[in-house]
Every structure is written in structure tokens, then in C-alpha cells.
Amino acid sequence: MTVKDVKEFLGNIQPFLELDDDALDNIAGGVIVEFYPKNTLILQQDGPPSDFLRVIKKGGVKIFISPDINEEIVLDYRTEGDSFGMLSIIRGDKSRANVATVEDTICYLISKEAVKRLLDSHAAFSEYFLKSFLNKYIDRTFSEMHNKSLLYGGGDKLLFTTTVEELSSGNVVTVPQEVSIKDSAEVMSKRKISSLVLVDQDNLPAGIVTDRDLRDKVVSKGRNTADPVSSIMSVPLMKAEAKEYCFEALLKMIRYNIHHLLVVDGGKLKGIITNHDLMMLQGASPISVVRDIETRQSVEELAPVSRKVNRIVNLLLKEGAKAGNITRIISEVNDRLLRRVLEMAERKLGRPPVNYCFIVFGSEGRKEQTFKTDQDNAIIYEDPKSAADGKKAAEYFRGFSAFVRDSLVACGFPVCPAGYMASTPQWRQPLTVWKDYFLKWINTPTPDSILFSLIFFDFRPVHGDTGLAEGLRSYLKRILKNQNVFFARMAAVVVNNRPPLGFFKSFIVEKSGEHKDELNLKFRGASPVVDIARLFALELGLAETSTFERLRALRDKHPIITELGEEMEQTFEFISLLRIHHQIKRIEQSLEPDNFINPGNLSNLERKSLKESFQLVLRVQDAILELYRPGMVTQ
């Protein structure tokens, strides 16, 4: 390292680019370089204050607090060009948070005395930290975290009651996409912003540039700053409607791995919202769990992170979230964990010999997961060009699927007792074989075929070449047309699983055994609704796999759902929420979550609502019986 190297690095990042040459020379001459291995705790919450402002030259850190020894709430991640320790220097009493490396990290250390001289002598340097950093992030984060008792509680700014418009910053700075990188950087520096929206000749958003883009695409690559800023912008832009609730923005950020969303109203740009805004709104966001997942480099590191998902469920419940919203967010988080495992498998075993798509089904396929359920997955891969290629692909995916299975077990997802996993040879096959499976099940609707259809037709792609899954979905839609016998057989299965309600509207419960006086809320309550929505959706060729989405899509397409669809949605929401609350209660009692409830332990209102829910499902099943009776032949 030379003073010239340090000066060049600092001179390209905020807030040091505000300094003149003499000030930069003085700072660079006194810098100390330190290397921290991965997982090094640099600053400790409530420990001694920092004597240095640390600027990350390479690597990254996470900033987090620990309410107790087994709990960790991530506040922020910082990478190359970011700094930390300023709050500790300013206040001088103690460190407010833990700072630990998430990978091998090199930092430039600037002494407390040098930092204080800069704060006193350079207004722009002082303003950057005191306004942009201290006030906006640290103070606001701690204030909101403590107001919510570090995780839970009331307040009027909640994820499911706050619109994107309320939370977003309305001061969106835009520049024409033709301006230079240098001019754009100057605008960002002058306005003290981390992102800049680029607009086209019609003044419509065309792309976005962030401070990370300037570091990663310009400074580190030695790019000519006279180039148009459009050459480094990120497209396409993801947008959120102003009236959407913040959880919708959260879903988009998780799904597309982005940190900024434009806020639009009637097509017009109204503001911008960041992942940091959402993290501070919630106190502990699913985004922080996802970002934690992304930093893990091995299954051993990933397993502890996966255990945080249960805490998200509890948090969302206490914020008053609907069951449908909880399951969507948890499914997105679990998707990211699964994709990380698949990336690790590819890294360990090398590139696959053919394109493939990893699919999930069951509750995961329908995005209806709450707590970790059995693995339900499969692999579709390209049809090999030769027998030799087929053998090579089969061998690769054998080892690949075994690694994925064992990794998911380590992360808390048990194996499927029936073997509906990619690690079972039958469920990792070329596209042609999958088409043959589907055609056989439909043309020969035996009990086993109907069972497979109920399971696998809810498939959803998670990773890889999604075109393979889309091709299979299109094929399924085509071959299901006019398959009256198949749908009649499926209808017979649907109406046979009756909700546990007796003739005098009393609950039918287990008479003996481990679950005496209890009923299975999943299989006798939620599953009949899932089966009804699936039957109608498949018959009408709908692509949706989620039960909620299917019911909404069917409202103006199927006469039964047109009449009773809204009540069916409410029924499914109530039963799902009852299940989640029951499972949370068992976890709090250090018991394994299950689906068996004792109706006697419910409140009068809950019992009444559950009976009405079961009556509605029975009514729909009776309508199905009338509709399909002529085709319900004995199997």
C-alpha cells in the first residue's frame, strides 16, 4: 500500500471526495491498514467506543444488535467504500451495535483525532455524516427499534398498514440518461443521495444508478467518466404503485434481489423506496434474513440463518398480517434459501451437463408455507441428445439432488416420507419423460394417477431454466382440455375429503389415541379448499398455483366461485390463520408444530367461525357432487 493508493481510493468515495488535495494528503498519510478474517467481531455492542473511522477497502461487514445471547437483529450491511465507527467516535461513550465481518475484509483506519479535525474544518464532510448517516440511519433505527421493544409491538407505521406512498421519499432526483458518468456522480455528491433515476426524452424513467454502480462499474474498473451514465445504469426498473402496502414492495425486493423501488401513481413518478426504509419500518425485516442468506458460503453457515424464518412468522403475526400475506413472504424467503443451496450444489459439482429447472410443489408450490415443511421438489432437465449424454446427465443429477436433499435437512426441512423429492430417481427426469407422466396420469386416472396429479400439478419453478417448467405447464394445459373422465375422478376425491362437521353441526374429533378430542385442521380444513380451487383452475386452464390466486382468478370464470368465491377466500384465510396461531403456540411451549387442534380450547367466536367455514366447504362440495355426479364412476 502507498499513500497514493489510499488517496486515490478515498478520493472516489463519499465523503472524502469533498476534500481538497491537501486534506486528502494529510488523511492518506496517516491511514493504517488492517486485515480482518471472516466472522471477526470488530466492534462490540456496549463495548468500548471506536478509536478509528474504518473505511472498507475490500470485503464487507454487518451491523447488528443482540437483545440476548441467542438473538441477532441485523441493522445494515456495508461493503467496499462504506465506513463505520463514526457514531462511536462522536458520542465517545460506548459502541451502540456489533460490527462483524461477513467475509475476509481489509479496512483503512483513520484516527479519531484526524476525523474530528475534518469535522471541525470541512463543513461538507461534517454534514455528510451528521445529517445523512447519523440522523437518517442510526438514530432513527434505534429509536424505532426501541419503540417496538426491539422487535414487536404497536405503532402506526406497520408493514401491512402503511402504503408505499407514505414511506417513500418524494424527492426523487432525475437526470437525462445522456449525461456523463462524471456529471451524474457530481449530482449525487451535491444532493447527498445514494441513487439517481435516469429519464428518457419523454421524461419517463429509463434506469437507475446507485453509489454501488459507481464503485463497482466505474471506480474499480477504471472506466472513462465521460461515458454516458446510461452505460452503467440498471434496467429494467422495478416499480411499486403508490397505494400498495409496503409488504408488496418487500416481496418485490426479495424476489428480484433489488434495493430500490420507484414509486409511481397513475404512471407518474412520485418517489423512491429503499430496503433500508422497510427494515426501519419493521424493526427486523425479512430482507435482513434474505441478505444474510446471500452472504453464506456453505451449508454449515446457512443452517443457523434458516432458523430465523420462524421468528419472521411470529413478527408478522404480531403486526396483524393476514395468513395469505405471511405465507407469501415466507415462501419468498424459503425460495431464496433453496436457491442458495442450489447455487452451492452447482459450485460443488460443476456446471450441469444440460439445462435444468428445479421445481417445487405441495404447499411450497402454492406459496402457502408457514413453518418448515417436508421437502417436495423435482428436477426437469433438457432431453439429452444421445444415450451417452443421458447417462452423464443422470449421473450428475443423482449426486446433485442428494446434496440438495441433505443440505435442506441440515437447514431444517425434513425429507418427504413418501419420497416426492428430486433425490428419488423417478422425480428427476428429462422434459419428455415428465410429459409422458402427465399424459399417462390424465388418460389413465387410477387412484395413484389422481394422487400424483393432486401433488405434482401445483408445481412451480424456483431455479434454473424456467422455460422447461413453462413448457411443461403449457403442455399440461393443452392435454387437460375436455378430459371429463379425469376431472370427474378428481372431483370424486375432492368431495370425499369432507370437513369434520356432524349432522347436528358438532365437530367430529378423534375418539382415541394421541390426538383424542382433536381434529386435523390442515387435512380436514384447509386441504378441501385447496382441492376445490385446484380442480376448477385446472379445468379452466389457469396458470396460478396459489389457492388465493386461483380463487380470485376464478371469480368471473366459474359459476360456483362467482357465487361463493369471496366467502371461500375468507374461509381459507381464517383456517390458515388459525393453523399458524396454533403452531406458534406450540413452538412457544417448546413443542413441535402440528395441525391438530382441540375445538374445546377455542373461543366461542372461533368455534362459531370454524363451523361456518366447514359448512361453506360442505356446501361447495355438494355443488361439485351435483355438477360431476354422472362422471363419478367407481374407480
Brief overview, please?
By secondary structure, this protein is an alpha+beta fold.
Structural overview:
The chain has 635 residues and is an alpha+beta fold. The protein folds into four domains: 3-123, Jelly Rolls (Sandwich); 164-282, CBS-domain (Roll); 333-473, Beta Polymerase, domain 2; 484-631. Helix content is 50%, strand content 15%. It contains 24 helices and 20 strands. The longest helix is centred in the C-terminal third of the chain and has 30 residues, at 559-588. The chain is elongated, with a radius of gyration of 28 Å. The chain starts with a helix and ends in a 7-residue tail after the last helix. 39% of the residues are buried. Residues 131-157 have low confidence and may be disordered.
Decide which structural class fits the backbone.
alpha+beta
Q: Provide the residue-averaged pLDDT.
A: 83
Q: What is the overall shape?
A: elongated
Q: Count every helix, treating DSSP H or I runs of 4 or more residues as helices.
A: 24
Q: What's the number of structural domains? A: 4
Radius of gyration: 28 Å
Question: For the report, how would you describe the main beta sheet?
Answer: 4 strands, antiparallel
Helix content: 40-55%
How many extended strands?
Answer: 20
Q: Strand share of the residues?
A: 5-15%
Cα distance spanning the termini: 78 Å
Key terms:
635 residues, alpha+beta, Jelly Rolls, 4 domains, 4-stranded antiparallel β-sheet, 24 helices, 50% helix, elongated
